[in-house]
Amino acid sequence: MATWSRFQKIAIISLGAVGGGFAYYQINSTRSDKKFDVQNSWTTNFTPSVKWDKNWDHREPASLVKPIRSDKPEEENRYNEQLEKSKSKAVRHLFLIRHGQYNVDGVTDKERTLTELGRQQADLTGQRLACLDIKWDLLVRSTMTRAQETAKIIAQHLDKNIEVKDCQLIEEGAPIPPEPPVGHWRPEPRQFFQDGARIEAAFRRYFHRAPPEQTQDSYTLLVCHANVIRFFVCKALQFPPEGWLRIALNHGSITWISILPSGNVVLRTLGETGHMAPKYISSRNNPT
Question: Do 57 and 192 fall into the same domain?
C-alpha cells in the first residue's frame, strides 16, 4: 500500500502540471474500479474580478428606451416594442491594418514614405484580403503618408466601388502612458493629453454595435498604425488600456475584431502576417 500511495501522489502532481495549474485532480480511491473525480479550480467559489460592461458603447437597448412608468398593460407593451426596435441585428466586422515598413529618416511626414519592403508588404496584405472573398463596405485611411500609400496599394486588390474615407483621428500617436513604462520611449505628458483624446474619439467613432436599421453584417477596413490598433484592441476587449504596449504588431498585419449584436466583442485575429513569407515580415521601421 505504501508503494501505491507514493504513486498516487506522483499522479496528482503530474496531472496538475499537465493542466497548467488550472485544474486539480482528486483520486477518491486506490481501487481500479473507481472513477476519478475531476474538478476545475475556478468552479469553486469563483467570482469574476471585473465584469463585462454591456453598455460600453452606450447602445444597450435598455439604456435607449424610457423605462416603464406605470403598471398599465399598454405601458409595458410600449416598452417591449421600443426595446425590440432598439436591438442590433447584425455584426460589425472591423479589420485593422498596420501600414507597411517606411523610411524613418524622413524629416516630415511626406518624406516618410514606404520602403520597397513596405510596398511589398502592402501588396501581399491586399492579396490576402481579396482572398477572403468579403464584400467590403468601407475603407478608412489614416491621413499620414505611410498609411495612405499602404491603403492605395491594398485597394488595388479590392472592389473598385468600395467607399474610401480619410480620417485624421486614426493617425499615429501616444494614446495613454504604458504600464510597464518603456525606458527608451518617453513622450512628453502633453503628447498623451493631445493624442489620447483624439484616439479615444476614433474608438468611439468606429467601435460600436450595428445600428438597429442595419440588417446585414458589415465589413470595414481601417488602415492605420500600431499604437492606435493596440489601444483599440485593449479598449474593445475591456482590458486595461495601459497594457497596449505589451502587444507587438508586424507591418502589414491584419487584426480582425467582430462586434456582435449583443455588444459582446470577439478578437478573431491579432497581428496576422501568415500570408507573408518570412523574408517579408518586419516590425521595426528600418531606414531605406
Answer: no
For residue 28, what are the domain limits? 8-43
How far is residue 265's CA from residue 237's CA, in Å, rounded to a whole number?
A: 6
Contact present, 26 and 44 (Cβ < 8 Å): no
Residues 64 and 29 in one domain: no
Residues 14 and 147 in one domain: no
3-state class (DSSP) for residue 7: helix
Q: Which of 120, 119, 93 is nearest to 257 (CA)?
A: 93
CA distance 213 to 210: 8
Q: Tens digit of pLDDT for each residue in 164-209?
A: 999 999 999 999 999 998 877 788 888 999 999 999 999 999 999 9
Domain count across the chain: 3
* C-alpha to C-alpha distance for 96 and 101, rounded to whole angstroms: 16
In the three-class reduction of DSSP (H, G, I as helix; E, B as strand; rest coil), residue 250 is classed as: coil
H helices within the chain, ranges in order? Answer: 2-18, 61-64, 73-85, 116-131, 145-155, 189-206, 226-236
Is the bond preceding residue 180 a cis peptide, omega within 30 degrees?
Answer: yes
Residues 102 and 245 in one domain: yes
SS3 state of residue 253: coil
pLDDT tens track for 212-236 = 999 999 999 999 999 999 999 999 9
Count the residues in the chain.
288
